[in-house]
């Protein structure tokens, strides 16, 4: 049977730099381990998050699992204070799209250090 925990594999150019990026915008690091000479880092939105990102080295995956699609997943995060989050990411120098009102909510997108884009919605 499935559990409530979801892990999304994100393939990045530099696991250490990506882990630092995600932690700078407020993510929690759960685990880091080495496997066959490569670093793997598991992060989540908080210390109790059941949905997590697992950062894998793109070159390692290309070599060991060439059949795996390496494109980034399309992920939308949510925020209960989207304006403050947007301002924090601006201060950190994160590449951001415009903060726009969409119906009852606001939305923006941002790029991680590898140029992968993600969206955030909230109030």
TrEMBL record:
Q: Which Gene3D superfamilies match?
A: 2,3-Dihydroxybiphenyl 1,2-Dioxygenase, domain 1
Instruction: Name the source's superkingdom.
Output: Bacteria
The protein's matches in InterPro entries, at most eight in alphabetical order, are given as: Glyas_Bleomycin-R_OHBP_Dase, Glyas_Fos-R_dOase_dom, VOC_core
- SUPFAM superfamilies from the UniProt entry: Glyoxalase/Bleomycin resistance protein/Dihydroxybiphenyl dioxygenase (SSF54593)
In this chain the VOC domain maps to 2-123
User: Which named protein is this?
Assistant: Glyoxalase
